[in-house]
């Protein structure tokens, strides 16, 4: 089998990583293949359409109410009651329409009015509560960072505090709406710095990184894997899927990495450590940094193995292998968290966006992995997935002379256990077949006996009269001569 055919199930054209609208930015499966910018445009179009439909529905309901009210004028005795009900319904309908429009059209960075805040009988906002050590440290670093920008820094800090205040009162919104508010805030702050503050683009990027670190450290516990989503369910599903695929070997994925080389083995371990460490980070940018470090270790491992720079076709299969081998915790939750709350400019361009898009592709491949993807027969794939058997281990004659004797013995024992397991399965199958044959034979004999008994029933006759003495019928036996007696002759 050629290498090209082996890669057929894993290869992803780099053009498939880009936004399907053709804008040149990286797309994302969570955004249906669009980049952040195009997805927001499509989302706003759909939302505007929904708003228009809601308006039309509200106007139609209002006309129906007015017609019903007009027809009820002829009714006597209930006019005042009907009019009061109509006014109440009309007021409620108007309030609902105004609230709906405000909800959709209000700027995400705008804070609720002072009157609303005063009327709300709620506990103090999260920014005023007792902060954790990490949150306190991040806050101090953020303030020290903004001091270098003087007036611009004060304005940024004020906007950030207002945003956190607003997010406190928006916790009842869906996670998608909270994500939309955060993305709007990122965009508004960046545009304001570039237009009003005349801040250079490179400094804007640094400021946005600090803003993201500050706000997401505070919001992390509320927006990461919330109970209102199915993120946890997806985490358990992908974790179970990866565990079931523990038997997949590097050769099946065409991974160009030789773990027998000590340096390569170290790189693989570091890549696995980085992808697992992603879950311990709170800031989306820090999680992206873990993915980037993992990817760079993969490229180094491939480069050492092949003695040449790695290609994109080599990178994706190796990333899939690392994910299968590491089984990172809460993988789907971390991907969704980065997608929802990371600064969109990082996901659309740059190496962070490229590596993150490849990780999304790797997870999608694992979820859809089948026998054809690994160039296996469906029978072998099903046996491996069920745990009945595992792929043959490396033959002893293929080991290098410098290979560890303990590793050789381990693979030899695994091979022996695999053979014994197959032999045990054959014996059990034969035993079950013999048991079934014996049961069928017993049932057949019993049925034949029953048929014969029914065909020839047993008849029990009464016992005959006991036989009398042989001379009982001789009535004249008294006239018979006596029996002869033995005589003894002398002589």
How much beta, percentage-wise?
A: under 5%
Helical stretch count?
A: 18
Mean pLDDT across every amino acid position? 79
Weakly predicted, low-confidence segments: 1-9, 78-83, 97-131
- Report the major sheet: none
What is the N-to-C order of secondary-structure elements (H for helix, E for strand)? HHHHHHHHHHHHHHHHHH
Task: Please report the distance between the alpha carbons of the first and last residues.
Answer: 120 Å
Shape: elongated
Summing up helix and strand content along with how strands pair, one would put the structural category as: mainly alpha
> Radius of gyration over alpha carbons?
42 Å
Helix content: 55-70%
Q: Give the total of beta strands.
A: 0
Domain VPS9: 232-375
Keywords: Metal-binding, Zinc, Zinc-finger
Domain A20-type: 13-47
Protein name: Rab5 GDP/GTP exchange factor isoform X2
Features:
Znf_A20; disordered N terminus; 491 residues; single chain; mainly alpha; Vps9-like
